[in-house]
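Contributing new records

If you add data, match the layout below exactly. Sequence lines come first and carry their own label; structure lines follow with theirs. Keep one chain per record. Anything else will be rejected by the validation script.
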Amino acid sequence: MIPAPHLIASQVAAALQEDIGRCDWTAMLIAPDTQSSATVIARQSAVLCGQAWFDEVFRQVDDEVQVQWMVKEGECVEADQVLCLILGPARSLLTAERSALNYLQTLSAVATETRRYVDLVAHTSAKIHDTRKTIPGLRLAQKYAVTVGGGLNQRIGLYDGILIKENHIMAAGSISAALAAAAKLAPADVTIQIEVETIHELEQALHAGAVSVLLDNMNLTDLRAAVALAGQSAVLEASGGVDESTVREIAETGVHRISIGKLTKDIQAIDLSMRFA
């Protein structure tokens, strides 16, 4: 789900403040009454994402600017394709250009990367999920981009889901103790998941009533064994060591979910350019 408009506006305001500061000296080289038009062009194939942020940048810089999109959010675009036409004062177009493109390039990169993984496992029932490994300040934006690419969101933050990891288990004393404490603590709208590294740990988690288990860095043999052991009693999520060369085989083990940090962490911005007419 796309973040609420006021959250997008807040993100954009912060981005513009760090970029413009007290003024854009270079744009002031242009006469204030100069009107211009520009197009944004894709230099490579991608899944387009981030139109709301792009539009909001121009709106905050100058609400006289008009952005006319030629493609829809989530649409696959090709190299040399024109994405939008921008009309308005030349100074405003120049001032907004970098921040607007930053959002569009970054979020399109997340959506594009996600789509690659989703397509690789499309022949299975496994679903691609993101993680909390996001760029600071862009958590909601990047998680939205994952959904545009066809993926699903893991917990948004620490507030909407409990993920019991190795250190939590050590501090609590045992897997069963950690799960019992979580069940007592969590309200109905907070999910509970526990991470295990071995089949023995999975057995303990299932015996303690776990209904969602993250299988951390398990090999394919252990993943298959985990699926056979859990049956329909728990949702199983594979994590760790996942890339484009391994995700297909991981999905084919029968796990329900595969979480991938690099969807939002190790991205390369999509090559887009803005050109004045």
